[in-house]
Amino acid sequence: MTRGTTENPWVRRSLIGVALLFVAIMLILPMVLVLSQALAHGVGDYWRALSDKDAISALKLTLLAAAIAVPANIIFGVSAAWCIAKFEFKGKQLLLTFIDLPFAVSPVISGLVYVLLFGLNGWCGEWLREHDMKIIYAVPGIVLATIFVTFPFVARELIPVMQEQGTDEEEAAATLGANGWQTFWRVTLPNIKWALLYGVILCNARAMGEFGAVSVVSGHIRGMTNTLPLHVEILYNEYQGLAAFAVASLLMGLAVVTLILKTIIEARTARAEEHT
Amino acid sequence: MSIVIAGVSKAFVGFRALNNVSLEVPTGQLVALLGPSGCGKTTLLRIVAGLDTQDSGAVLFDGTDISQVSARDRGVGFVFQQYALFRHMSVFDNIAFGLTVKPRRERPAANAIKQKVEQLLELMQLGGLGQRYPSQLSGGQRQRVALARALAVDPKVLLLDEPFGALDARVRKELRRWLRKLHDELHVTSIFVTHDQEEALEVADTVVVMNAGKIEQVGSPDDIYDSPASPFVYQFLGDVNLFHTNANRNARAERLMSTVYARPHELHLERVPSDREGIETRLSGQRRIGAVVRLLLERADGGGVIEAELTHERYLSEQWRDGDQVWVRPMYPRRFSDAVH
After folding, report:
1. Which one in A34, A157, B12, B300 has a CA-CA gap of 20 to 30 Å to B60?
2. Would the ipTM clear 0.90, i.e. be above it?
């Protein structure tokens, strides 16, 4: 190391110390608190809070919303990334901007847009009522809002990877007689699998954790349109601290699993890059 | 299979890549498309392969217009400049790819594929490397895998885009000769793109010199080198000295207002003025490059510097010193009318 980049060891130590202290107070302490509150009255009460009928229904709805939103965004994300990375066309920049829209807009606003569109007094409200369909304050609305907020994750993860890889391998596959489907499954997908998985994990975490947009369209009907994050809020507002923390610990568990998977994939990608 | 390119034009945004290009490649020939970068040679190759589409004109294989046929149905083998090997597949799977994606009824049995790949590995001197991944190979080995992969489907036409462009000089030379040998064994009609005139002259049966989206000259390597059709071809094939006739005392040539072209190794250098017309110069610099010595000769009439090349042997025996007076006369002067430019 040169003189210019070496710091006084005390400066270095205090910088690291500040960073660690910050992480401990802002990130680790809350997690420990959630867990300790959830288990404050023992495992029995913790388990009872989780097996409550409404909590299970909220868990089911959260899983359902993620189970629809994640595959939908995989299909959308892969196709969007494919056309952005592999083709030249007019309006490409515009498409890229639109993909980022859900990151830019407050989730509450996006929920409100759906209410305006599909709500009773919304644009399609009358038509929906005539055909006996319910979107707002019902499961379809929750799924729609979840898809909206998780829209960019897969596409954003894939676009740079696919752009960097270029179209050479696909062109080689074409001259060797492979059709589009074969090219995708045998050439493109294996090259993007780690980036795709990474995007899917982030997308899934957000899908299960989303609060704002879902809160607007859900209507908070217990046992019907409550997702896990919404259920936590309701329980907390009703002074059921123990139950609220118990359900929250589920979401926290999800976050920890996500982080572990993310670390594993990052290590794999780094190794795959060393290979090429 | 013979290839005919008939009046092909192609424009990209704000740039004409090909301007009404026509070319015939007879069956079994090895043709080089030679030109500086941006001359349209790669675009032409990609149009023949079906990877790009021409704006107008046609490409014919054996007399049949295949302009509407997609790349995957053209039956061409294409070797990419950066190899474009499938990075997540072993060498074996790379070479077998073209066979394994065939529709079920045309696909060879697994052991037939294995046999074919082994045979190609042998032919490409890649024996024993089948289970390696592309990242574990040297540049020259990757290039041969790319070639084997293209040959596995028995292409009727082989197209190579700067096949040796990314290799170091020694491997380049080796692979070049090896490609020529391979072509003599397989006789598949081949076109390769290069910007290296030495490569084109050494390997090809026919050299096509391209410039700015047009073909400048088509001919055998000897034709191209000995009778270049234009100043561009002359200059592109090697170093050159220009003698503008207005700086020359040759009165007859002056009336034609032409420029004389001569290669550095094709100059008579005389230490005493002879009765023939010579250009008076003074030796102002010398540099040895292996077996040759390059002399810089400053013209006495202020017309610039002439570059001459001598064998090292001759250089030593004649004892050249800076400041020596030298009279220069081109051995094979070539004239191109200035009006051409």
Report:
1. B12
2. no
**Closest residue to A171, CB basis, from B84, B88, B134:** B84
Q: Which residues of chain A have pLDDT under 50?
A: 1
Burial of B337: CB neighbours in 10 Å, binned 0-12, 13-18, 19+: exposed
Question: For the segment A35-80, what is each residue's pLDDT rounded down to a tens digit?
Answer: 898 888 888 888 888 888 888 999 999 999 999 999 999 999 999 9
- DSSP code for A211: -
Are A16 and A213 contacting, i.e. CB atoms less than 8 angstroms apart?
A: no
d(CA B58, CA B60): 6
Examine the pLDDT at B254 and tell me if it is beyond 70.
no
Helix (H) or strand (E) holding B141: helix B139-151
Residue B90 contacts residue B132 (beta carbons within 8 Å): yes
Residue A252 vs residues A65, A102, A228, A232: alpha-carbon distances, Å: 18, 24, 11, 12
pLDDT digits (tens, 9 = 90+) for B86-142: 999 999 999 999 999 999 888 999 999 999 999 999 988 888 899 999 999 998 899
Q: Which of B50, B135, B153 is nearest residue A176 as measured by Cβ atoms?
A: B153
- Side-chain half-sphere of B118: how many Cα atoms within 13 Å? 6
The residues in B 81-100 lying below 8 A from A, measured between CB atoms, are: 82, 84-89, 97-98
| Pairing status of strand B189-194 against strand B241-244 | unpaired
**DSSP bridge partners of B207:** B32, B219
Which among B201, B222, B245 has a CA at the least distance from the CA of B334?
A: B245
Confidence of residue B340 (pLDDT cuts 50, 70, 90): very low
**Mean pLDDT, rounded, of chain A:** 88
Residue B64's closest CA among B3, B154, B153?
A: B3
Interchain CB distance below 8 Å, A276 and B135: yes
Is the Cβ pair B78, A175 closer than 8 Å? yes
CA atoms within 13 A on the CB side of B53: 5
Q: pLDDT tens digits, residue range B18-38? A: 999 999 999 999 999 999 988
DSSP letter string, B183-234: HHHH--EEEEEES-HHHHHHH-SEEEEEETTEEEEEE-HHHHHHS-SSHHHH
Averaged confidence pLDDT in chain B: 87
Query: Is A171's Cβ below 8 Å from some Cβ in B?
Result: yes
Residue appearing with tokens 């009439």: B301
Q: What is the Cα–Cα distance from B180 to B205, expressed in whole angstroms?
A: 10
Enter the DSSP assignment of A199. Answer: H
Per DSSP, A182 falls in state H
Of A4, A3, A21, A25, which Cα lies nearest the Cα of A13? A21
Query: Within chain A, what is the greatest distance between any pair of CA atoms?
Result: 77
Among all chains, which residue has been given the structure tokens 């993620």?
A66
- Rounded CA-CA distance A80/B206 in Å is 45
Q: Rounded distance, CA B152 to CA B75, Å?
A: 11
Strand-pair partners of B157:
B76, B189
